[in-house]
């Protein structure tokens, strides 16, 4: 619990430093947040490793998976922010990761998780990486929409200084989607190859929603390449595809594990 509390405090400290930097000069050149953010990420991962060691296996149930997605989002945010692009993303991601970690600590531990062979573990880790990457893309889409709306109304808020130019933000959005799409493709392929008895395991609805999300993200990338889709169209497709993905994974896990009490 001590490690978790320290990680949460570091996440919130990093977010606070970013807020101050954004208010001061739009967050340009800010580096003070990197140390607490990186330490928080390390402790976040360590908390999971210690819990798995005590339980005798990797726990990938609802709150554990939610926390791991938050960890992945924080890692991506730290990487993107350290490169000097979209550090302000941490204002949203770091408190969200802290909340997910706290939920895992309070409600998410499973005493004896079901052991998974390396094939199912590979599938699960690919899924978590895909969800984390595409969740960051969804946040980029929201920021793109807010920026476009403010500029269209000629409302030049101070927080706009924390965002890169529209073209750069849009480029970052589609690059992130492309990476997430590759990871989601790998997730579906490993699922087809390694997961058996989809109906018996109550996974059919999860598979259908995941495939629909994959088609939506793929359609968006195709539309971008073929027709130059951008702006509001890109935002709508991104958020719709992400909503399908959230329903596929966390919606199904919530119903099965927390409502129906099935593993």
From TrEMBL:
InterPro entries: Cyt_c_assembly, YpjD/HemX. GO terms for biological process: cytochrome complex assembly. GO terms for cellular component: plasma membrane. One of its GO terms (molecular function) is heme binding. Pfam families: Cytochrom_C_asm. PANTHER family: INNER MEMBRANE PROTEIN YPJD. This is Cytochrome C assembly protein. It comes from Lysobacter enzymogenes.
